[in-house]
Amino acid sequence: MTKLMVDARSVKKRYGSNEVLQGISLTVEQGEVLCIIGPSGSGKSTFLRCLNHLESINGGRIIVNGELMGYRQVGNVLHEMKPSEIARQRQSIGMVFQRFNLFPHMTALENVIEAPIGVSKVSPAEAKKLGQELLAQVGLAEKADHYPAQLSGGQQQRVAIARALAMKPTLMLFDEPTSALDPELVGDVLDVMKGLAKAGMTMIVVTHEMGFAREVADKVVFIDKGQIVEMGTPKEVLDKPKEARTKAFLNKVL
Amino acid sequence: MADEEFNSDDVVAVPLRHPWRWVFGGVATALLLGFIWSIYSAKSIQHNIVTQFMLDPRILEGMFVTLWVTVVCMFIATVLATILAIMKLSANPLQRWLATGFIEFFRGTPLLLQIVFWGYLGIIFPNLFVGIPFTNIIFFSGQTSQLIPAILAGIIALSLNEAAYSAEIVRAGILAVDSGQVEAAKSLGMSGGYTMRRIVLPQAMRVIIPPMGNEFIGMLKNTSLLQVIAVAELYTQASTISSANLAQIELLIVSGFWYLVMTTVLGFPQRALERKYGRGFAVVGARSEGRAFKVGKR
Q1: What's chain A's Rg over C-alpha atoms?
Q2: In chain B, what residues touch A163 (CB-CB under 8 Å)?
Q3: Which sign, positive or negative, has the C-alpha torsion A32, A33, A37, A40?
């Protein structure tokens, strides 16, 4: 039996009177790759950030790895979690950002081993070994001692992926990981992500790369105006969309 | 092919001349020499007294006090300032108000007034004691003037005042760090305190150090205000000597010279710190044009 990794139930998010997410429900099984597509401002990035509680939600429930994110439920009452408990929940969820957000004052290797040493209390020697392996996995073994400013965008993003993997996450979130990259650098990052998917990592990817979605995704969901418009296999959603809004969007991006 | 028209590195241009730099430099040099000469040739200044007291033991002792009081005060002030800055950025309104109140109070009253206040604390509260309020239990008590000698009063006054100013510098540094850094740290499961210590503050240091260098120099000079509560620092020593031998100007020159030496020397550790916390950041604003007075030879 497959295990449910993410169970989002009618997730709602408001900024003031602006309803950014109007009840998003979806599930991701262990080892599955879900791609979220949609126009800018549709709420797809916000949804991703809700999954690891970088944003709090106004309605619904998010269950990751069998744990309710950000809250403890006692009977029908939700209690806010302590920051330390939320931090613990986030350790098993890796996140990769559009603008990389590497720590600029640390080398590539230091970026990768900072959280394992400081948060998971792995010994420095062990963390270094793991860090070198991960940098090799993303093809940057020889860049370990470079600072982010000395790396290209694509290299920085691959270091960021290694950094997230160093916490041995069971779920990886990618927030438009290739949108800030020069076109010729996109391929290297996508290759790393494909490798991860092949190795069985559960991934949720907000992306504009339809080619990647078609090739790697088990499931594609199209979100517009804070709602799920269409969800299914890449073939169903990308090749034979049923909804008019999906068709209009795909016509623009393909 | 068109490429063969130019050999590599064939731009051999006559450098642009900057005649006004030479004019300005000449005027500035003349003014400076005139000033030095006017001091040197002034009949009212006895140069032998200047040289006699330059290395006087009392002057050197005063310098030593000035230096260690400066270092101690800046250390206390920096620690307090970091706490105040974090409090002012806290989500807890009580902490924000406390920090804001502290900063407003100590920035809003003259430093000289604060020094005198701490120096004369013994007049307001003749006795100090530590105990449990509304009971007779007293752990510890004593006379204020003995518990807080002048030098401690001076250190308290300078540190608290400096903390208020530095807090805003530290806060500006923290705010200058990209919010994506905190998000990345959070997503890795780092706690708030850990993120502040390992991710935010080291990056904020880059922005904090240059203005803190200013504050350090300001502090070194402000220690001279401790003369009003008779702390034996450099300026106090110099004015004690001059009130005996009536050579006011000569001793001002002596203390002024040493203040200038100390503030200049303080610039070196600042540059080392800037290099340390600048790692990973490309240097912007480095002069690509080279020296100001470039003489074209070609």
Answers
A1: 18
A2: 188
A3: positive
Check if the beta carbon of residue A58 is closer than 8 Å to that of residue A47: no
B10 belongs to a structural domain? no
Query: Are the CB atoms for B191 and B263 separated by under 8 Å?
Result: no
Categorize the per-residue pLDDT at B285 as very low, low, confident or very high, splitting at 50, 70 and 90: very low
Nearest CA in chain A to B188: A91
Task: Report yes or no on B211 lying in a domain.
Answer: yes
Model ipTM over 0.90: yes
Q: How many domains in chain B? A: 1
Is 80 exceeded by the pLDDT of residue B176?
yes
User: Is B187's CB within 8 Å of A87's CB?
Assistant: no
Cross-chain CB nearest to B280 (options A94, A104, A118): A104
Task: Tell me whether residue B39 is in a domain.
Answer: no
Over residues B183-220, the pLDDT tens digits come to 999 999 999 999 999 999 999 999 999 999 999 999 99
pLDDT digits (tens, 9 = 90+) for A43-90: 999 999 999 999 999 999 999 999 999 999 998 899 999 999 999 999
Q: DSSP letters along A152-170, please?
A: -HHHHHHHHHHHHHTT--S
Q: Are B173 and B205 in contact (CB under 8 A)?
A: yes
- Determine whether the interchain pair A148/B280 forms a contact, defined as Cβ–Cβ distance below 8 Å: yes
| CATH number of the domain within which B233 lies | 1.10.3720.10
Q: Which of A87, A95, A160 sits opposite B190 (nearest CB)?
A: A87
Please answer whether residues A68 and A62 qualify as being in contact, where contact means their C-beta atoms are separated by less than 8 angstroms: yes
